[in-house]
Specification:
heterodimer; A: alpha+beta; CPE0013-like fold; 2 domains; 3-stranded antiparallel sheet; B: about 425 residues; alpha/beta; FAD/NAD(P)-binding domain; 9 helices; globular
Chain lengths: ~110, ~425
C-alpha cells in the first residue's frame, strides 16, 4: 500500500494505492483519484506551464502550457525547449507554438491574448 | 460622469460582479482598474489548477481571466485602465484620476468594491538583520519572472508555505534556480496539500516546518539567511540555527485585503478578516456599496471568488432596481470553537432564495470532527469533517428549510470534537 495525496484538483484527497492489487485506490472522493493513483505509481505525468519571449506585446513574456500532461521526467527538457521559443504580438489564447513535443502527442500552446 | 454601477477593480472579482450585474438588467456599468490590463493577479499566475468548479476543466490563471474578459467584452461593459480611485464617499461619489481623462468625479447608484489584497512584507513580520536587495514578496517575484521577464535570483530560500510560496518554489526551480528550502513558522503548511506534492516533493525541495528566518546578512545583495527551529510558542530555539548562503529570499507570509478606500468611506471592517463586514447580499455597512473577492476575505480558489462576486453583482442590480428587502432584523453568524471567522457575518432570511452559502476558516488543524450549525441548543446542521486546516477554506450551504427554524437573532457555527 502506498499513501499519496491526489493532485488532480484542490480537494487534495489522501488516497491509498495497493500496488499488489492492480493499483486499487481507496480514499478518493471521485473517479479521477483512482486514475491518478495508478498513473502516479506507474507512469507519472504533469502539465508544464512557463513563459516564452514575446516581441511587441504589453509584457516581455507571454505564458504557455503543455496542452495535456506529459511524462514527469520530461519537465526540464520541456523547459529547455520553451527557452528557445519566441513569438511576435499579436497572439491568441490556444495558438500552438510547438507541435507534438518530444513525440508525446501534446502541443505547447499560448494561454492568453497579447 | 454618472453610472448605475461602478466596480472598483478589474480582477476576477470585479469582472464577475460587473458581468452578472449587466446580465441582470443594469445597462450603465463601469469597471475601474489601476493596472494597464484587466484580469488582476490571475495574469501572473501562469500555473494551472484554476477553473475546476467554474468551467469543469483545469485552466491556467491567464486562461481563466481571458474567459471572463471575453464575456465582459460580449456584454459590452465599459472599463477604464491605468486609473486610480482616490476616494469613495458614503454618498457613492467616486474620485478617480488617469492621464487621459485627468481628474474625474463619478456618481454611482451602486458600487462594488473588488480591490483584492496585498502581500504582507518583510516589515510586517519584522525580520531582523541587514537590508540588502534580493528580498522580495513571492507575488512580486512572480510578476517579475512571469510577466516582465526578469529572473530574481539563483539560490533561494522561501519563507512561508502558503500557495504562492509553494508555486514560486517550483517556478524558480524550473527556471534554473536552486531553492534550498521552504521555511514555515507553523507546524503545518498554509498551502493546499496538492501544491506540497507537485511543487516541493516533485523537485525534492525540503519543507522545514516549525522554523523561521532569524537573520539576514548581505552588503548590497543578500548573501546569507539564518533559519532556526521554533518552540511551541513560535520563539526561535537557540543553537538550532542553519545558515544558507543564498542571494534571494522570497516571502509568502500572508495577504491582507486592501481596504484603504473602504476605511475612508466609513465602511465597517471585520478585525478578523481585515475586510468589510458583509451581509447575505454581499452588501457592506453602507447601503448600496457591495464587496466581493479578496477585499472581503482571502480565498484559496478563484472559482469561489467568481461565485461570491456574482452574488455581489446580482445584489447590486437588485439594489439599483430597489428589490433588496429590509424589513427583518439581521441574524448574526458567530464562529466559535476553532472557527476564526465567517463570511457573511450576518443575514436576513427574507433575502435568501434557496439557501445561504457561508465561508469560514479554522484556526488550527482538525481531524475527524463535526462542523455544526447551531441555534441556541438546537443543532440545525452537522457535517462530518475528516480533515480541516487553516490553509483550506471551508464552505457550507445552509438550506432555506433550516433557516425557518431559526428563532433568535444569532446562530453559531462551531467545531465539535
Amino acid at each position: 500500500m502506498k499513501k499519496l495525496i491526489c493532485i488532480v484538483c484542490p480537494m487534495g484527497c489522501h488516497i491509498e494505492v495497493d500496488e499488489q492489487n492492480d493499483y486499487k485506490t481507496t480514499g478518493n472522493q471521485c473517479p479521477r483519484g483512482a486514475v491518478y493513483g495508478k498513473k502516479e505509481l506507474t507512469a507519472p505525468t504533469r502539465v508544464v506551464t512557463s513563459t516564452i519571449k514575446i516581441k511587441g506585446g504589453i509584457h516581455n513574456r507571454v505564458p504557455v502550457k503543455t496542452a495535456g500532461d506529459i511524462p514527469k521526467g520530461l519537465n526540464f527538457k520541456c523547459m529547455d525547449l520553451i527557452n528557445t521559443l519566441e513569438v511576435e504580438s499579436p497572439v491568441k489564447m490556444g495558438d500552438v507554438v510547438s507541435e507534438n513535443i518530444f513525440g508525446t502527442g501534446v502541443d505547447l500552446v499560448i494561454t492568453r491574448n497579447m | 460622469m454618472k453610472y448605475e454601477l461602478v466596480v472598483l477593480g478589474g480582477g476576477p472579482a470585479g469582472l464577475a460582479a460587473a458581468i452578472e450585474a449587466k446580465k441582470n438588467g443594469i445597462k450603465e456599468v463601469l469597471i475601474i482598474e489601476r493596472d494597464n490590463e484587466l484580469g488582476g493577479i490571475l495574469q501572473q499566475c501562469i500555473h494551472n489548477g484554476f477553473g475546476l468548479h467554474e468551467f469543469k476543466e483545469e485552466l491556467t490563471g491567464p486562461e481563466y481571466a481571458q474567459r471572463f474578459i471575453n464575456q465582459m467584452a460580449e456584454e459590452g461593459i465599459e472599463y477604464k485602465l491605468d486609473t486610480m480611485v482616490l476616494d469613495v464617499s458614503p454618498e457613492k461619489k467616486i474620485q478617480a484620476i488617469n492621464s487621459v481623462d485627468g481628474y474625474m468625479e463619478i456618481e454611482a447608484k451602486a458600487i462594488v468594491m473588488a480591490m483584492g489584497c496585498r502581500e504582507r512584507t518583510r516589515g510586517a513580520i519584522a525580520i531582523p538583520g541587514d537590508r540588502p536587495s534580493g528580498i522580495f514578496t513571492a507575488g512580486t517575484a512572480q510578476r517579475f519572472v512571469n510577466m516582465e521577464g526578469y529572473m530574481v535570483g539563483k539560490k533561494v530560500i522561501i519563507l512561508g508555505s502558503g500557495d504562492i510560496g509553494l508555486i514560486m518554489a517550483r517556478r524558480m526551480t524550473l527556471e534554473g534556480a536552486k531553492v534550498e528550502a521552504v521555511v514555515e513558522l507553523m507546524p503545518y503548511s498554509g498551502g493546499l496539500t496538492r501544491n506540497i506534492v507537485q511543487c516541493l516533493e516533485d523537485y525534492d525541495i525540503p519543507l522545514l516546518l516549525s522554523h523561521t528566518v532569524t537573520n539576514v546578512k548581505g552588503d548590497g545583495r543578500l548573501e546569507r539567511v539564518t533559519v532556526a527551529k521554533v518552540d511551541e510558542n513560535r520563539k526561535p530555539i537557540p543553537g538550532t540555527e542553519i545558515n544558507y548562503d543564498v542571494d534571494t529570499l522570497l516571502l509568502s507570509v500572508g495577504l491582507i485585503p486592501e481596504n484603504d478606500l473602504s476605511r475612508n468611506a466609513g465602511i465597517v471592517l471585520d478585525r478578523r478578516t481585515s475586510g468589510p463586514v458583509v451581509n447575505e447580499s454581499m452588501e457592506t455597512s453602507i447601503e448600496g456599496i457591495f464587496a466581493c473577492g479578496n477585499v472581503v476575505h482571502v480565498h484559496d480558489l478563484v472559482d469561489f471568488v467568481s461565485a461570491e462576486s456574482r452574488r455581489a453583482g446580482i445584489n447590486a442590480a437588485k439594489y439599483i432596481k430597489n428589490e433588496i428587502k429590509r424589513n427583518e432584523e439581521f441574524i448574526e453568524i458567530d464562529g466559535t470553537n476553532g472557527i476564526s471567522y465567517t463570511v457573511p457575518q450576518k443575514f436576513r432570511k427574507e433575502n435568501i432564495d434557496k439557501g445561504l452559502e457561508v465561508f469560514m476558516r479554522v484556526r488550527e488543524v482538525f481531524k475527524d470532527v463535526k462542523l455544526e450549525v447551531r441555534c441556541g441548543d438546537e443543532v440545525l446542521m452537522s457535517l462530518k469533517k475528516s480533515h480541516m486546516a487553516p490553509g483550506e477554506m471551508e464552505k457550507i450551504m445552509i438550506p432555506k428549510v433550516f433557516m425557518d427554524k431559526i428563532n433568535t437573532n444569532k446562530i453559531e457555527v462551531t467545531i465539535k470534537r
